[in-house]
Amino acid sequence: MAKQPIITVNNLVKNYGDFNAVKDISFEVYEGEIFGLLGPNGAGKTTTLEIIETLRDKTSGQIIVDGFDVDKDPDNIKKRIGVQLQAAGYYPNLNLSELIELFSGLYGINKTPMEMLAKVALTDKAKAKYKELSGGQKQRFSIATTLINDPRIIFLDEPTTGLDPQARRNLWDLIREIRDSGTTVVITTHYMDEAEILCDRVAFVDGGRIIDIDTPDNFIDKLVASGFERKKEVKLANLEDVFINLTGKEWREG
Ligand code: ATP
Fold this sequence. Notes:
Its main location: membrane. The protein is α/β, with parallel strands linked by helices.
């Protein structure tokens, strides 16, 4: 089946004053994929995502999200996407259950908190405050909030930064489940192992330009075909495998 673009970015440019942060980039995200934006700090990933999310103005270019133009129909785009809030958005006096109720109310959607918390294995924390959660639980909760409006696409900006290996793997499983249930996922990450395992396709961004877009497998095959070889012989396991093997793979609350 031909892949359908759910996001189309054409000739996107973003200037901050004299500084040209995004330099005429074009790409498509296909419906139902996990699409990764990879690149060093300052490459322009967050700027690009925030423009697609209708949270930031562009300088020029055209963006279509699920058939709607960011210039003409930002409200329809907002209804169809899920974006992670910064931690500051979680009112400190409300517990997780109350926060979900609040967000559901803002969307005008009747979702029960337990239904949303169950999706991210946090029902036992329904009465906890956000600040009382571990790093992995915070990320899972914030992903739950992106799903309240049954979005067509969710955007995750570095969702596993600072998490331990188990919490990262749990989050990868969760992100795959979200993709498998039909939601397109756009993610940024600085972890190449994560992108290789999780992303269906990745775009490398550097200095405000897209260098190349392909599947992780194709990128690696192309590099190997060009004669590249790792200097050191690769071991059959790495230290992360040792960590997981010694400390277990189950959901952890620590
Ligand atoms: P990171 O991986 O560190 O999150 P990024 O790829 O997301 O980086 P952006 O946050 O999009 O990069 O920033 C791209 C460039 O634009 C950087 O040089 C940054 O300093 C600059 N920039 C971002 N926001 C603003 C702003 N509001 N005003 C001026 N310059 C900005």
